[in-house]
Amino acid sequence: MRNICLALVIMVTAISSVFAQVAAPGEIQIKVNGLVCDFCARNISKVFSKVKEVSNVDVDLSRKLVTLALAPGFVLEDEKIGKLIRDAGYQVVSINRGGADAAP
Amino acid sequence: MIHRFLFFLICLMISASSVHARMVSYAGGKTFMTFNDRSSYSTFVHYSPSSIFSIGYLNEYDREKDFWLQAAQVTGLKRWNWEDSQANLYLFGGMGGAFEGDGRGRASLPAALGGASIDWEDRRFYTSMAARGEYAKGFTSGSTQKARLGVAPYVAEYGAIHTWLMVQFDRRPRSDEQYSVTPLIRFFKGSSLLEVGSDLEGNVMFNFVQVF
């Protein structure tokens, strides 16, 4: 019985880690406050579409996340990310980087 | 979240005038708006040098009094972003002129307008209130107020068509019919927003906003 419970815990942990909100390599996940309106959140796409470092922008209203895919060979500093999010009318809660430059 | 909502409800009750939401866009954004209801038809274009203010031009026709109001307008925005909701306070002022409907008659320079709008929303509920005062000698003097309540029948994800059911309450002290109630439907997808409604007397409301 104890072994079964332990196996279940390990299995649930493994499944959870698969669906955990982690940024893929080359991606930056930004937790943003105020993401409640698609029409207004479009501003985020418009702001980042003008940035050469970014190849794709995805907004998730349910998880309050903005996910940026970086163009090959480019980096995007947190300070610039914060400014661009403010330019769109929002504010950054946290930034999570995937791959070699993931935050500690 | 409830106490924040109540705070803004109280703010809404204090004062208001009729103004348009989305009067400030993202830094570098350009917006076109057109608003049409039983009392007026207007177009408003604005440019937002930053996400906290915009400069724009208003061209408005008053159907009841048959005159045009044209004004340059500056709008400031204070926004509160919370995890699950957002509130906005717009303050604006403008100056221009008023002209008789046929364009060949009286004109009044300068004409001035100003006001405020406040709104709160989450992904399911929306509330707003606005007030506007205006003055053009020989044409108009006074203020109007507007309030809205809205609910989203479904919560849509990013990129989908969003739908809101709303009701707008108007108070126009200088009109023959001072009070009106207009149920309306708001749709938006991408950077386009459309509102269609009709007041209880059958007067159509049609509003459109496009952000570039």
Question: Any overview of this molecule?
Answer:
The complex is a heterodimer of chains A (104) and B (212). Chain A has helices spanning 2-18, 38-49, 78-87, and strands spanning 27-33, 54-60, 65-70, 91-97. With 104 residues, chain A is an alpha+beta fold. Chain B is mainly beta and 212 residues long. Chain B has a twelve-stranded antiparallel beta barrel with strand order 1-2-3-4-5-6-7-8-9-10-11-12. The longest helix of chain B has 13 residues, at 2-14. Chain B is globular and about 50 Å long. At the A-B interface, α2 and β2 of A face β4 of B.
User: Element order, helices and strands of chain A?
Assistant: HEHEEHE
How much strand of chain A? 25-35%
Shape descriptor of chain A reads: elongated
Overall mean pLDDT of chain A: 85
- In terms of structural class, how would the helical and strand content of chain B be classed? mainly beta
**Alpha carbon gap, first and last residue of chain B:** 32 Å
Helix content of chain A: 25-40%
Question: What percentage of amino acids of chain B are in beta strands?
Answer: over 45%
How many helices of chain A? The count is: 3
Element-by-element helix/strand order of chain B: HEEEEEEEEEEEE
| Multimeric status of the protein | heterodimer
Going by helix content, strand content and strand pairing, the class of chain A is: alpha+beta
| Overall pLDDT of chain B | 90
- Number of contiguous helices of chain B: 1
Radius of gyration based on Cα positions of chain A: 17 Å
